[in-house]
Amino acid sequence: MADKQFTARDSLGREIDEWIDAIPGEVDTPAEIVRQRIGRIGRQFDRVLAEVADEHEMSTGDWEALSVLARAADGAGLTPGEMARALGLTSGTVSVRIDRLTRSGLIEPTQGADGRQRPVRLTGRGRAAWGEATLARTSTESALLRDCLTDEQIRDLGSLLGILLERLETSYGPAPRHDMTRGRSSQ
Is the model's pTM score more than 0.85? Predict the structure, then answer.
């Protein structure tokens, strides 16, 4: 049974006793509560991104692709193969995404050897759309954090999560980048 100090009015706090009781054997309840809450918070932040992307007339996948291109060195763009690797997607899926974003005027081809190897880059409109959506996402997330945590708590939480992330990355390798919403590798 969960200790009262670990329960809260969130969805996990309302069901943690039932969840812990269902797991066979001894469970480190505080550790399980942390893991469960981190997972649920991550999924909630994915919802924020999806909502913001929709408000900016793009999909989460579009936002991911634009993010990858926004990071491309010197605005030179990326080839479809580089995008596929960065996004953890098949070349066919990336081709469809590139076609859609090109038709929308958010990206454009640059000079390259052939159609499959021709890099694409953000247009001015694409950079503006990505920037507006990204600023809206970060603003929404900041407001959510600041609505329930003090500046000191936010700093402390960031530090504590950094320690945990470092430990996990030591065991399991680098975590997917911030703009990979489905846990895909960014390598």
Answer: no
